[in-house]
Specification:
It is a single chain. This protein has about 650 residues and is α/β, with parallel strands linked by helices. The chain has 5 domains: about 5-130, Response regulator (Rossmann fold, 3-Layer(aba) Sandwich); about 130-175, no CATH class; about 190-410, Aspartate Aminotransferase, domain 2 (3-Layer(aba) Sandwich); about 415-525, Alpha-Beta Complex (Aspartate Aminotransferase, domain 1), CATH 3.90.1150; about 545-640, Ornithine Decarboxylase, Chain A, domain 4 (Alpha-Beta Complex), CATH 3.90.100. It has 23 helices and 25 strands. It has a 7-stranded mixed β-sheet, with helices on both faces. The structure holds pyridoxal-5'-phosphate.
Length: about 650
């Protein structure tokens, strides 16, 4: 059983020794305890060292010894370094203080140490609880015959089949017997949580520092749509990073809002897009006084993080809501080197793909609502969630959200420390032992973002293999074919590796070995092809929703039809992937430059996927609005202006 350490901070050594000795005796008499607690004490100067130990789970501050200023400083230190752990006040006062900073209060004069012990144990038991996952396990072991969905009935339809029993055995029995439905009342309902799902969500809110947290089982793609549907109405303006995930563009279509796109900074040397320069965000906010919402992605796929506080404050001063897409940053709260998170910077809504960086199943996501969001309407938000939620959510996935939260609440600091150490070690190795180069924040950002205080999430390790004259797609191929190593993504000359809490010493070792081998045999490989520049966005002439739902016509990209595309209005989002940044969004004017770029992607980059194109008589084509549809769309747009 893992040990949980509880540290008393006091300058009164005699009292500290007695406190520890009394509580240790109670521990010894609690042989059947579900958690093993260990008590120690230190003076305030040693608190920092205690907080750097992952086992420290509760800090008790002794106001019988520390004055008010010291108490406040210690409390701030705990919040700064370990937001996920609890602090408790041990007070000599007979009238409790008003402040609500502490998880609990214990009297310094308490002579019954069993009471003190149980108070502290209760705090930890709450944090380590997984209400939904526990209920699911309990139900599975207690359940008898099922007469409800899913039809496989705990996997019995598979296990008894000579044709598909092998799949049952491969997947394992619990994949099937945890696959249940809303008919099982003791497992609550994701669409109207009142018991175990609600409790798990409340624990998540506490762990991540939100006012409310909602579990979502269709990925952050859906979480983004839910938040945008809640915030936007037809004709509302939303200032949006062009480089945002396509779910945000889709939400513009669904809500009928008018996006004001921000061009991301581009580092053509590496094919890296984003973030958006701060001055450009501020200028767009100033130029759009009626905007309702600002949406940014932090960190980006490449791990680049905005200096969020200044941006969120600026947006709030002008009355905007702020959604930060933290799909790639659910781990940010659990190590001081990674903070502040978007919620800590005051974001109103934050979406996170728990599955991307933490221990949850794919598609598991959370929406966090910030403290003090203006006019937050929980009932309305619930309606928007339910509109996007399957009435048959995956129960194993909900349990994985619960368990992933528990892990980060109790061992988040330790696992992130290990992850950051691996990432640092990998970077150092590449720098010192290969012909490749790990890129830092400044190199990834380029000049345009030099003054924006952009930070890099160290867990995203981008390596410039072009520096050694190699093509990244080729190195990627070799890593897989020779060493069985799969990377997260590549550009023309860089490879990105995601170091996660699931990374192990041996995986790091094998990656180092593979990179060194490829670096040493590099002359055998192809040289990198240059990256392809994306043209600037043209005008958004028509609301994305109107353009997308137009009947339109499909015109081929080349020949006479191609020429006729210029000046028309696009119905679909056209996106080369990677990098996944749209060349066109619905409602946007097709220009010669954009058409040329689309043609170049189609004909010269067969390695890429092109999303949004259609076919016309077998030729690649694009859907554009009919002239009469475009006229109506323009009138609608003018009525909004
Ligand atoms: C920035 C960003 N937001 C949202 C998403 C969608 O997340 P999910 O895969 O959880 O649906 C992604 C996916 O890659 C992403 O990169």
């Amino acid at each position: 059983m893992m040990e949980c350490c509880i540290v008393l901070v006091t300058g009164d050594r005699q009292f500290g020794q007695r406190w520890v000795s009394e509580l240790s005796q109670v521990v010894d008499s609690d042989a059947a305890a579900p958690l093993q607690l260990r008590f120690s004490f230190c003076d305030p100067q040693a608190l920092e060292a205690q907080l750097c130990r992952g086992e420290t789970q509760i800090v008790v501050l002794d106001d019988g010894d520390l004055d008010a200023q010291m108490l406040a400083e210690c409390h701030e230190q705990i919040r700064d370094r370990r937001a996920e752990i609890d602090s408790v006040l041990l007070t000599a006062a007979r009238v409790p203080a008003q402040n609500r900073d502490y998880e609990s209060v214990i009297s310094r004069g308490e002579s019954n140490y069993g009471v003190v012990y149980r108070t502290l144990r209760r705090i930890l038991l709450e944090r380590t609880a997984t209400p939904f996952a526990d209920a699911l396990r309990e139900y599975v072991y207690a359940a008898r015959d099922s007469w409800h969905t899913p039809g496989h009935s705990s996997g019995d339809s598979l296990s008894s089949s000579p044709w598909i029993a092998d799949f049952y055995r491969f997947m394992g029995e619990h994949i099937f017997n945890t696959d249940l439905s809303v008919s099982v009342k003791m497992l609550d309902s994701l669409m109207d949580p009142v018991s175990v799902i609600r409790q798990s969500q409340q624990l998540a809110a506490r762990t991540f520092g939100a006012a409310h947290t909602y579990f979502v089982t269709n990925g952050t793609s859906t979480s983004n749509k839910i938040v945008l549907q809640y915030l936007l109405r037809s004709g509302d303006r939303a200032i949006v990073d062009r480089n945002c995930h396509k779910s945000v563009h889709h939400a513009m279509i669904m809500s009928g809002a008018l996006p004001v796109y921000l061009e991301s900074a581009v580092n053509q040397d590496y094919g890296v897009y984003g973030p958006v320069p701060k001055s450009r965000i501020f200028a767009a906010i100033d130029a759009t006084p009626d905007a309702r919402l600002l949406v940014l992605t932090s960190c980006t796929y490449d791990g680049l993080r905005y200096d969020l506080k200044s941006i969120i404050d600026y947006a709030h001063r002008r009355g905007l809501y702020v959604l930060i897409d933290e799909a790639w940053y659910a781990h940010g709260r659990f190590h001081p080197d990674l903070r502040p998170t978007a919620l800590e910077c005051g974001a109103d809504f934050v979406t996170q793909s728990t599955h991307k960086m933490l221990s949850a199943f794919s598609q598991a996501s959370m929406i966090h609502v910030g403290q003090g969001v203006k006019d937050f309407d929980p009932a309305g938000f619930r309606e928007d969630i339910n509109m996007h939620t399957s009435t048959s959510p995956q129960y194993g996935m909900i349990a994985s959200l619960d368990v992933a939260r528990k892990q980060m609440s109790i061992e988040g600091y330790s696992v992130m420390q290990r992850t950051l150490d691996f990432a640092r070690d990998l970077r150092e190795f590449v720098r010192e032992h290969t012909a490749f180069r790990p890129l830092d924040a400044a190199e990834l950002c380029g000049q345009e973002l030099a003054d924006d205080a952009i930070l890099l999430d160290p867990t995203k390790v981008t390596i410039d293999v072009g520096f050694a004259g190699l093509s990244a797609p080729e190195v990627q191929l070799q890593l897989f074919s020779q060493f069985g190593i799969q990377v997260e993504k590549n550009t023309h000359n860089t490879l990105s590796f995601l170091v996660t809490i699931g990374t192990t010493e041996s995986k790091v070792l094998r990656l180092k070995q593979a990179l060194r081998t490829l670096s040493e045999t590099r002359s055998a490989m192809q040289k990198p092809a240059a990256g392809q520049a994306l043209p600037p966005l043209s005008e958004i002439r028509v609301l994305p929703r109107t353009a997308y739902f137009a009947r339109g016509e499909k015109l081929a990209l080349g020949g006479e039809e191609g020429k006729a595309l210029v000046g028309r209005i696009a119905c679909d989002e056209i996106v080369p992937y990677p990098p996944g940044i749209p060349l066109l969004v619905p409602g946007q004017l097709v220009t010669e430059e954009i058409l040329a770029a689309i043609n170049a992607f189609v004909h010269e980059r067969e390695d890429l996927e092109m999303h949004g194109l259609r076919k016309n008589a077998g030729r690649p084509a694009m859907r554009v609005m009919l002239p009469e549809e475009a006229d109506k769309g323009l009138q609608e747009r003018q009525s909004i202006d």
